[in-house]
What we know:
This protein is of the alpha+beta class. The chain has one domain (15-177): Jelly Rolls. It is 21% helix and 30% strand. A 7-stranded antiparallel sheet has the order 7-4-9-3-2-1-10. Strands 6-5-8 form a 3-stranded antiparallel sheet, with no helix packed on it. A hairpin with a 4-residue loop joins strand 2 (64-71) and strand 3. It is globular and about 45 Å long. It starts with 18 loop residues before the first helix and ends in a 5-residue tail after the last helix.
Amino acid sequence: MRTATTWLDRVPSLDIPDLREVHRISRALLDQLADDRDLLTLLVSEVLHDPERLAASRVTLLLNRLSLYQAPDRGFEIRLNMNPRPDNQLVPHDHCYAFATRILAGGYLQVVRRRTDGWDGPFTGADLEPAIVTVERPGSAYTLDHTMVHQAVMEPDTVTLFVRCPRRKKLSHAAEELMPPKETWPAPAEPGDPTVESRPATVEEYTQMRTYLMQHRLIN
Length: 220
């Protein structure tokens, strides 16, 4: 199921090498969507009726997320992140894609770290030095490349819009020796299933996320 035709269908491709242009396009997208409450409500509601977006909505060791809009032909996906688990966000990590985000509610302390062993492949905590520390609040927005390592320790009620750009490397990485213990990972969707770092959200979990957003007056 596609979403109803909206201005999102006119957003340019983000499958481009210029990170400044990625930031310009993404920032305009995020600002407009943050102000378009009716569209945000529609996108959240549609997830339940779209198998692809529901399967891409996940419960992870860091937070929960909804997949609001998918544009593989233009190289991006829009997500809504919520329910952060601050104790599990202490591990430095990178992503296999560039991304842009805007804070809708709550906030967090972010540390962007500098790698001392080059830009590629696995790393440990000993390979990192602090580079930039920021405090993000509602309305804040930024873009990070896939080469950057960061930590974002979120307040409990933080909700963010997130634009995922195309994959630029096979795997993301984290400082393995700092990974949170398995007992803090998401509970299995079904009793007896193995515990994993990330799994698709159940319909019940989707409903809980939608209710949470309504209760916090982020959607209608």
